[in-house]
Amino acid sequence: MAWLDSLSPQTQFVFFTLLKIGCVLGLLLTLVAYAVLAERKVSALIQDRVGPNRVNLPLIGSIPFLGQFLTKLGFWHPLVDGVKSFIKEDFTPGHVRKIYFWLAPAISLVPAFLVIAVIPFGSTLGAQKMVIADLNVGILYTFGIVSLGVYGVVLAGYAANSKFPFLGGIRASAQMISYEIAMGMSVIPVFLVVGHLNLGKIIEHQAQNGWNVLPIFGGGFSAQTLLLVPCGLVSFVIFFISALAETNRLPFDMAESESELVSGYHTEYSSMKFGMFFIGEYANMFAGAAMMTTLFFGGWTLPFFGLDVAPVAGEWWKGLLHIGIFMGKMLGFMFTFMWIRWMLPRFRYDQLMDLGWRRMIPLALANIILTAGVLALTNR
Amino acid sequence: MALPDILFYLFAFLTLLFGVLVVANPFSRNPVTSAMFLVLTICAMAGLFVLLNAFFLAAVQILVYAGAVMVLFLFVIMLLDLKEEQRRKINLFGIVTGTGAVLGLGFLLTRTIWGGDLEQAANPRVIGDTKALGLELFTKGQFLLPFEIVSVLLLVAMVGVILLSKKELK
Amino acid sequence: MIVKRNALTWFERLYLPAIIGGLKVTTRHFLNTLTTKTPVTQQYPEEPTRVLPGYRGAPYLVRDQDGATKCVSCQLCEFVCPPKAIRITPPGPTGKPADRTNAEKMPEEFEINMLRCIFCGLCQEVCPEEAIFLKSDFSLTGLARSEMIYDKDKLLALGGTHPGIQKWKHKLDEAKEQETFPVKV
To answer: Would you say B37 and B21 are in contact if contact means Cβ atoms under 8 Å apart?
Structure first.
């Protein structure tokens, strides 16, 4: 490790950033693949059936107990799905607009990964902070990138040059920009309470004063904390619903409602391009779950066992534990996303837009005014 | 050449390039292509804002301008199904007035930039984080009244559009 | 008729009780399938499919209780088959005599092309001798098209036995029943 110290600080910074990017991307792509499997398994268990349980790799399947257990769990299905995505025929229909056809899956995929760059997924490991880019306008950057993700859907619908995908694309992107507004406005009370836009500092504030969703742990009871409880809860609920709508998940998935609009805006796509849309959808879900964990549920901290401060020099296992806590919370949110899918019927499109514009936005605005009022009156 | 200089030249070149491509792209005469190049111009401009230490402005530029306004532009262009532009015949009057207008504008710009203080403009003296921007807009500075008037102006524009596009109630 | 829809009470209008009810249902299903209840999935190649009686599988020829072919080569199934999957070669004047003593002839060659068969069951309906039945096989595979044209021996082997029309035995049984019905005073 001596050669690391011999490099200049800039080179060290570049090296560690590249290392972090590599690890995060690798982990995220693996998690996305297994999220597809988890969705199929969870959906199956809720519907009284078993999910995928067939893929049996030749060597590993013959390990006595573990091999069969992994097969029953469907553990190798994402591997097989990935191979299938690559070897399927990837054709371009004759009637599409070629440039946008090629561009749309990429534009749909990239913003999801870019959002993960600002999220602190741990405290520190050694001397490195566990966040790729510690921006001072972290949350604004996130919302900006999320709003760029709309272009993928719009261009996908437009490129296909045929009625149903176009309608699906327009509807999906209109839904996304409507709920973006509610999402942005619902997070403003969090900044009013914390005072910073930096995600690391939001987590520190939550470690000291209790989680933003229910700020009564940690800081102890006071009039301000009690009055802020409904604000935090309403904020979280609006953010959760908007995140569901942003990623086009049920109950808001009218745009790609699989039985009604053929396949929505990604009808004309096959093999890897469709795979990229799929990965983009699940990566967006992960980004939304990570945002919720960071903003409302305390990120990598737990309010007991002294886990709410960054570890001192010698305790590297604490850094790993923090990463584990963050992953646990994020996976809990992912499970909730999959769970809600089978619980609620789908919203009709006009009901969806009505909910977004006429209920969520006024509620978020009222929440901002209420939080500001509480903070002003209890003299912060 | 330090990295900020390289980045500045890169972003400036990209902004100018994409700006030119909005009106004069050789790829297709589709209005959607122009709109997409405009989005790229806005993103490059956001990069320039970051180099000037205005992080909040860069993020809000992408959020509002590239992410919402341009998406709505795209909706209008796609839904109205504009045909590709016909080539217009070039006439002398148009060329003369066009060139005159461009020259006049260019003269004004050059005069302003060269006459002013270039050094001070390129090195921002305010460490403008979000809090300072907020204080400047809302309390300390003299921008509170213009800010509120601009928001009322936007409201008037929205109300006007809704009124004009409402169907007649029988 | 007019269906009266009651207005929602304010508690129901919150939608939260409905959502919590939905949560309870899904949780119950999830935990049940995870721990106690067996899922409804049938693991197909390992568990054979149980077909119900009346299922229209692949058509096979049957033998009667003495091991003789019931088919008398009347060719009615060949003419009724919609995709013309059955092809029968009748014996002619110089063919082999029938297996049964009370049958006039039996087919010299009886082929069903399983790739053409649509499993409609018309051949079973039309056969006057109850000689062809649609059994319960639904997945037939072969490595060549010629392999999927089943000839008479294969069809008879796959068909099994089905008792013939035993007219005199049935008349005897009816006569015995007559002795006890109507009830003698």
So the answer is: yes
